[in-house]
Amino acid sequence: LSGLDPAQPYFQGTPAEVRLDKSDADFVDVIHTDSAPTIPNLGFGMSTAIGHLDFYPNGGEEMPGCDKNALSQIVDLDGIWEGTRDFVACNHLRSYKYYSDSIFYPDGFLGYPCASYELFQSGKCFPCPAEGCPNMGHYADRFKDKIKNSFLKLYLNTGEAKDFPRWRYKVTVTLSGKKKVKGYVNVALYGDDGNTRQYQITKGTLKPDNTYTAYIDVEVNVGKITKVKFLWNNNWINPTFPKLGAATITVETGENR
User: Fold this and answer.
1) What is the extent of the structural domain holding 67?
2) Which of 216, 110, 109 is CA-nearest to residue 164?
3) Which of 71, 138, 164, 206 is exposed most, by the fewest CB atoms within 10 A?
4) What CATH number does residue 193 fall under?
5) Does the residue 145 lie in any domain?
6) pLDDT score of 119
7) Given this model, what pLDDT does residue 100 score?
8) Through-space distance between the first and last CA atoms of the chain, rounded to whole angstroms
9) pLDDT score, position 8
């Protein structure tokens, strides 16, 4: 059984026989996309972990792309009905959109076991454990024989619009140069299966010999990495023409390090 943002009002906190529960089937996976409290946040979905695998994309409460205004939703999508519906219940409806996208991406939507979304965002639950990470959505059942805990909360990030899957990488950059400057550092990944856009690794004071780390959720699984593009900018013209380079760049993929 796959629960797509099971309802919160009248169901959260009720006995197992009233609501969806992992006792309902041999394998129950749940996608939580609108689990903010109904009052005052109008969250339609349940926040409690109730399945064998409970996925909380983007933390499970506010989905990226759902903060657009009603007019842009209507223009972006297939018509006034879907646009209006998405505006009213966008977070809630993301669950089935993630699920339908997952059918086309058997390697996408990796859920990282973690105690909270904040820990996941900070990189504390990276990379996947030895048994791997389950895939949210259609292929979640490939993980059913690996479940050890009674409840497993899983976190991941998605895109703002279709196609929704993202792949998580840890990028560590050690800078080289003669003196510190202010600015930002961007990195793009190139691989056998595709290239990413540029992602910001750090901004502010850039010090040579310092190491900077970022966790990035990219729009393509690049496969085997063949090249990394490094770019820095100090945002304004500096008459001393400072120079910075990358002494080393380390890239780790969340799936297998």
Assistant:
1) 2-156
2) 109
3) 71
4) 2.60.60.20
5) yes
6) 98
7) 97
8) 31
9) 87
